[in-house]
Amino acid sequence: MRIGIVCYPTFGGSGVVATELGIALAQAGHQVHFMTYKQPVRLNALQPNIQFHEVYVPEYPLFHYQPYELALSSTLVDMVKLHKLDLLHVHYAIPHAYAAYIAKQMLAETGIYIPIVTTLHGSDITLVGSHPFYKPAVTFSINQSDVVTSVSQSLCEDTHRLLGVKREINVVPNFIDILKYDKLREDCKRSMMAEPHERIVTHVSNFRPVKRVQDVVRIFKRIVEKQPAKLMMVGDGPDRKMAEDLCAELKIEDHVVFLGNSNDVYRILCFSDLFLLPSQTESFGLAALEAMAARTPVICSNEGGLPEVVQDGVSGYLTPVGDTDAMASKALSLLTDLDQLRTFKEAAYHRAKTFDINHVVPMYLDIYERALACVAR
Ligand code: GMT
Fold first, then answer.
1. What values do phi and psi take at 235, rounded to 5?
2. Are 312 and 297 within 8 A, CB to CB?
3. Which stretch of DSSP H or E encloses residue 200?
């Protein structure tokens, strides 16, 4: 198949899922064409069956906002024609599903019928897409896609409820490549980061308000009062400074390392004892799944799709949003009981295995077949 993938190229989970999916499809022999404004962070385009086409938006002084959707739909039209693409898979509804719909209409004028698969990732529905300013266009473009997927049952229900979308939405979860994690374990350098008696607690995100990074710091403060530990803060974003300031205010800055954005998240996760994800909401929580694949149990909010990933009391704990006391006490119960910690680590790994790439890529291929059947009709 010749597949066009549209995604955000940044460190967010939707871009990671799109990139890893594209790489897996290319390895399986499909021709994959990524189209976005910058090379996706996890994409090494120098591999067989992968091409990257940059969407270029020329600046013009008249425009207060540069018309990215227009440039994207033009690129989609050109690339579908040039590379004879069979289908377009767009990740994140805004504005990708809308741009794909316009491209599809333009192509139809020339007798080319291209199916559109739209994958909803979370904030495109729960935080941004349901805003009254976007809702009509987002709802319209979801309804116009040939096949729609969401990354959790929770997001599927949110889409029906918040946007009033009535159509079928197929749940295809986020995934990890468990073999990659197994291989990286052989080269895990724990001693680089902490003393043997210290526990390592990790948080990975883009430090946006929805991640509640201040909660991470507050939970860790409670942990380190009772148990020697280090906190690894991985990622960057608007709330990083606030988190750094809070560490100084709580006098725990010597125990906290801010590592910034990293392409080597598994190298950090492999020596972590516990992962904290106290988000306001997560449609799935790819960061939690990646932690579990590295045998790291997760303490997270009982919100969105997180209960579909983390099993409470088995591979981690689910607690109410903002209840940093409960999160800290669960964390301490695990970090101070090595036998229990070991049991949770194994359970986290076994849970992660159920989301292995080998189970999920066939689900997308099946979706593609269904989308192709839509245009053949
Ligand atoms: O959570 C983020 O800040 C990034 C965001 C994105 O769109 O890139 O992640 C969303 O998509 C991921 C991949 O499907 C999910 O695992 C995340 O849970 C979801 N984030 C939210 O729902 C807040």
1. 120, 180
2. no
3. strand 199-204
Q: What topology is assigned to 178-353 in CATH? A: Rossmann fold (3.40.50)
Q: Which residue has the tokens 């990933």?
A: 309
Q: How far apart are CA 69 and CA 360, in angstroms?
A: 29
Please state the pTM of the whole predicted model: 0.95
Tell me the C-alpha distance between 22 and 37, whole Å. Answer: 17
- Per-residue pLDDT of 205-227, as tens digits, reads 999 999 999 999 999 999 999 99
Answer yes or no: is the C-beta of 282 below 6 A from any ligand 1 atom. Answer: yes
Strands 199-204 and 274-277 come out as parallel
Query: Would you kindly state where each structural domain of the chain is located, as residue ranges?
Result: 2-175+357-376, 178-353
Residue with token string 């291929």: 365
Ligand 1 binding pocket includes 115 (Cβ within 6 Å)? no
Would the CB of 42 count as within 6 Å of ligand 1? no
Place of tokens 């207060």: 64
pLDDT of residue 45: 66
CATH class of residue range 2-175+357-376: alpha beta
